[in-house]
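Input record, target 12 of the design panel.
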């Protein structure tokens, strides 16, 4: 899969922009705050219908404009594909081949991407929220049913949290029957989300382990573990997990009413990364943590290919300068010739690889982009 052409209309600091790309490495050069990351974000938005930098879609609309649009002509193994995302003050609309899609789950996954940015190097040592977002983004692209259950879960969770908060603040009276109904609905969605996460992590680890072993020059063995916020486990089938979740929610019910929020569930779960039997979030070196983050990103690429039959688009946003020469080389060797890649950087100094010699190069300055002739 690759992008042939990208068109932006009143997106961030871009007024009108149309760029054509080759199915190879596309190098985006420019100083900071000129629009490089905005361009990468726009490609991400085209695929995911949301930004990875903000939850407020209105921030994507250029100053004093009423709407913004990201439009892409792509080619996948089935032929040409046209995708479009429009943001306005009323919300957003997504289209595939000019036909509007009412559900995001019918849109996401049409274009698969893997993004690797400096903040992804904090995947291991950062907050659990970062790791949950990593899971949800990657799983949502290749399992539309996961997106459905995750959406259901968050919808019910929002309602349940509001009710618990209202009870805590004595705006409404506690009603055990009403809480039980909401909890049962939440559990049904939660069990689906958790079982699918367990399955995904097993497949991700199968790809990440040999990659990590190679990058660490055979010295390290990586394990990825799902860390639930309550007493469920990978061995449980769906019906058993539902029973256990009911018991767990009953156990914390009084505390939830006192605190005014839902205390357990997929929105509180986490991932652990174990290298040579040690939790590297706590005990790992920065080098081990970076190797793990790189291994995960490279494993994502292969897992997406395994599930969809084609490689995703790779976005490397100012991340090469954060990797040492060995990790840089391993990354670039892995993607060479099979993944359309977009690389942003302020300078190619210190990045010595033949793949960049053949790259299409673009220069960004104050929201204007020129192709190197």
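The sequence produced for target 12 reads:
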């Amino acid at each position: 899969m690759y992008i042939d052409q990208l068109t932006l209309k009143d997106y961030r600091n871009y007024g009108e922009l149309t760029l054509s790309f080759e199915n190879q490495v596309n190098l985006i050069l420019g100083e900071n705050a000129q629009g490089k990351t905005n361009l990468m974000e726009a490609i991400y938005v085209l695929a995911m219908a949301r930004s990875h930098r903000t939850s407020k879609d209105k921030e994507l609309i250029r100053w004093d404009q009423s709407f913004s649009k990201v439009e892409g002509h792509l080619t996948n193994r089935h032929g040409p594909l046209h995708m479009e995302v429009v943001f306005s003050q009323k919300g957003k609309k997504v289209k595939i081949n000019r036909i509007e899609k009412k559900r995001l789950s019918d849109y996401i996954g049409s274009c698969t991407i893997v993004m690797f940015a400096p903040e992804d190097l904090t995947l291991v040592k950062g907050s659990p929220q970062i790791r949950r977002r990593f899971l949800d983004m990657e799983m949502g692209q290749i399992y539309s049913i996961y997106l459905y259950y995750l959406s259901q879960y968050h919808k019910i969770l929002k309602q349940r949290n509001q009710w618990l908060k209202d009870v805590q603040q004595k705006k409404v009276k506690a009603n055990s029957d009403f809480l039980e109904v909401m909890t049962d609905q939440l559990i049904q969605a939660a069990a689906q989300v958790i079982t699918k996460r367990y399955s995904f992590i097993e497949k991700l680890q199968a790809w990440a382990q040999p990659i990590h072993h190679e990058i660490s020059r055979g010295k390290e063995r990586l394990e990825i573990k799902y860390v639930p916020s309550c007493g469920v486990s990978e061995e449980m089938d769906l019906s058993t997990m539902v029973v256990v979740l009911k018991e767990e929610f009953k156990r914390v019910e009084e505390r939830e009413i006192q605190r005014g929020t839902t205390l357990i569930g997929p929105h509180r779960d986490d991932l652990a990364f174990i290298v040579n039997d040690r939790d590297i979030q706590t005990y790992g070196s920065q080098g081990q943590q970076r190797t793990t983050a790189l291994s995960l990103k490279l494993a994502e690429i292969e897992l997406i290919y395994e599930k969809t039959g084609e490689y995703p688009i790779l976005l490397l946003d100012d991340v090469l300068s954060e990797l040492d020469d060995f990790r840089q080389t391993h990354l670039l060797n892995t993607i060479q010739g099979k993944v359309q890649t977009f690389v942003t950087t302020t300078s190619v100094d210190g990045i010595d690889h033949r793949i960049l010699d053949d790259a299409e190069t673009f220069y960004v300055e104050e929201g204007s982009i020129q192709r190197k002739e």
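The longest strand covers residues 2-11.
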